[in-house]
Structure formats: structure tokens, C-alpha cells
Amino acid sequence: MTLYPKLILDALATVRYPGTGKNLVEAEMIADNLRIDGMKVSFSLIFEKPTDPFMKSVIKAAEAAIHTYVSDEVEITITTESKQTARPEPGKLLPQVKNIIGVSSGKGGVGKSTVAANLAVSLAKLGYKVGLLDADIFGPSMPKMFQVEDARPYAEHVDGRDLIVPVEKYGIKLLSIGFFVDPDQATLWRGGMASNALKQLIGDANWGGLDYFLIDLPPGTSDIHLTVVQTLALTGAIVVSTPQAVALADARKGINMFINDKVNVPILGLVENMAWFTPAELPENKYYIFGKEGAKKLAEEMNVPLLGQIPIVQSICESGDKGTPVALDENTVTGRAFLQLAASVVRQVDKRNVEMAPTEVVKMHK
Questions:
Q1: What are the distances in angstroms from CA 314 to CA 136, 145, 270, 317, 342?
Q2: Contact 237, 269 (CB under 8 A)
Q3: Burial letters for 142-157: b for 16+ Cβ neighbours within 10 Å, e otherwise?
Q4: Could you tell me the CA-to-CA distances from 339 to 78, 123, 363 in Å, in that order?
Q5: Torsion over CA: 159, 164, 169, 171 (sign)
């Protein structure tokens, strides 16, 4: 039997690409490198992205079509091409970002997202370029806290890739899965789907040059934490807790997760949130409603820095609900507390970078 290009193309025209419903020839997915050598056939299929979810199934369908409509004796070699450049390998993502910090908590309800949002605002007020990723896939809160719930990020073509453009508010670049899902519906995803979504928000977004990239992690320990650690070279982690004994027990587990040999992420320090209650009309008064200095004692026990103690005042809740983080007003008790926290974080990061210098820092941020 003699093979010729039209036989092969006619067979491939019976295969439809699931993404568009068009056949491979009609969709112009056959590269112009079709080669025939006796009963050997080789060519490339062109996909939009190197991560196309239908790639494997389309290749198998193309092979089956040729064997069915031409001959089952044909030896087929199919390679792939993509119109977009591949996402950088893990560890090489975000080359323009100087410091990547995970903000974590052992349990929910300790105000971790509030701390992350206000820390980002405070760092921006200190003059740093800041990005904030809401990595809590199942309970994203950043869109509301920054009053950008109606924002719909778009993509732009950069260096051969389509990259998501982060939303900008208060001088901060922001992305959250909350921008892409129905806020009234529960996000029912398995761990793999959540991890892949997070990888896209990290690696397929145009974050640009940043001094600090904060990642608001979900509470507890999960696949998301491992995904972040395996995808990015974290500068360090911040653990948030209240002074309450039950929160401290989980904070201890959170610290142990990061310093575990398999994770090995430095702890920049602890933040004691809701450290005390201060009435707005009596700013000098402190009422220790959740216990006194529990996180401070844990920091001493675990030999990690206490980065700051954030008081609880009514304005924190109100500002978060309104989408105006309390750190925007540095003349308030909490505004000053978050500025002090930001300064402490900068000192710890600088200290760590000096300890790593010169070779490792250059290598990480080359």
C-alpha cells in the first residue's frame, strides 16, 4: 500500500477537537511537517497551550483514525506544538519577585485573612511593591475585604503567553479564586482541582516586579500548602494565632508543618491577633478577653520571633466588611499596630536574606 498526504489528512478530518467541535484539519491543528516514509508517518499537532487538557485524548484519537481509515500497519509518530510558551518550571516562577511570604494559621477564625490584607496595605504604605494572592480556594475573602467583588480579571499576551492581569487596589496587585467563581455557590473541588487552580493564579498571572508577594493560605494544613511549597521558593511563613489556648495548640502544629524536613520553610514569626480588646473611646485600656500573651509565650517556647500584637477593636470588622482595610488609616490604634507589624516583617526578611547572602539569595532571585 502506498501512503500519501491526502489519505492521512482525510483520516485526521474525522477527529474532532473537544474544545471547539471542529475537526483537526478544519481547526488548523495539523502542522506543515507531515512526513511519509513507506509505512511510517510523522507529524505534529498544534495546541493553544502546552497544558491543553485534551492533548492526550486527541493524540490517541488521531492514531486510531489513521489505523481505522488508512491501515493498522502504519507506524505513527505524533509530536505536539503549542502557540503559547510553556509555564516556567516550579522554582523558577516569579523571577521578578524578591520575597514570597505565606500567611498561615493552624485553625480558622483567628483573623488570618484580616492580618494578611492589612499587612499588604501597610507594606505598600511603607513604599514597597506588593502582591497578594488569596489562596483560600474554598473560602476566598479578599475580594470583599478590598471592595472588588465585581472585578473580573482579564488576560493579556506577554512573551508568548496569555497571562491574567491582577486587580489593583490601594497600590496592591490582587488575585483570588473569588473573582472566577459564583460567590453564592460552594466551590466543590477535589484537592487536585484546587491545586491546579492555585498554580494558574501563581504561574499564569502577570505579577511583574514585586518586593513582597503575600499568600493568604487556607487555615490548617492541606494540599494547598504543599502545592505552594512545591511551586514556589518561599522566603518564609508567618503564623497567625489568637492568645486562646485552643488556637495556640493549632498554631504549634502550623509551625511544625513549615519546619518539617519535607517542607523546610523558615518561620519569620508569630502574629498575635485579637491580643486584647480596646474600646475606641478608651484607647489606653486593654481587656484580655481571649487570654493574655498566649502567642508571645508560644513564640518564646518555639524560639520564633513575635512579629506583633494586634488589638481587637470594632473598626477592624467594620473596615473589613466595607472593603477599606483599617491599616489605611495609620492614625488609629490598629493602623499603627499593622504598620509596626509590617516593619517587623521587613526586618525579619532582611535579616534572613543577610544570613543567606551572598550565594543563595543571588541564586533564588537571579
A1: 25, 15, 23, 6, 21
A2: no
A3: bbbbbebeebebeeee
A4: 57, 8, 30
A5: negative
Q: Using omega within 30 degrees of 0 as the cis cutoff, is the peptide bond preceding 358 cis? A: yes
Q: How many CA atoms lie within 13 A of 189 on its CB side?
A: 18
C-alpha distances (whole Å) from 56 to each of 13, 59, 79, 89, 280 are: 17, 5, 11, 20, 61
Measure the CA angle with vertex 76, ends 9 and 56; round to 5°: 85
220, 250 Cβ separation under 8 angstroms: yes
Let me know: does 8 contact 20? Beta carbons within 8 Å: no
Query: Residues of 48-86 as b/e, b for ≥16 C-beta within 10 angstroms?
Result: ebebbeeeeebbebbbebbeeebeeebebeeebebebee
Q: Which pLDDT band holds residue 115 (cuts at 50, 70, 90)? A: very high
pTM exceeding the 0.85 threshold for the entire prediction: no
CA distance 332 to 324: 13
Q: Which of 231, 354, 252 is nearest to 303 (CA)?
A: 252
Q: Which amino acid is at 193?
A: M
The 10s digit of each residue's pLDDT in 197-256 is: 788 888 888 999 999 999 998 876 666 666 777 778 888 999 998 888 878 888 888 888
Report the alpha-carbon distance of residue 197 to residue 199 in Å, rounded.
Answer: 5
In the three-class reduction of DSSP (H, G, I as helix; E, B as strand; rest coil), residue 99 is classed as strand
Classify 264 in phi/psi space as left (phi over 0), alpha (psi -120 to 50) or beta.
left
Q: Residue 109 corresponds to which cell in the numbers above? A: 477564625
Instruction: Give the integer Cα–Cα distance in Å for 316 and 255.
Output: 26
pLDDT in tens, 27-40: 999 998 999 999 99
Provide the phi-psi class of 274: left if phi over 0, else alpha when psi is between -120 and 50, else beta. left
Contact (CB, 8 A) for 352 and 235: yes
- Report residue 65 as a C-alpha cell: 483514525
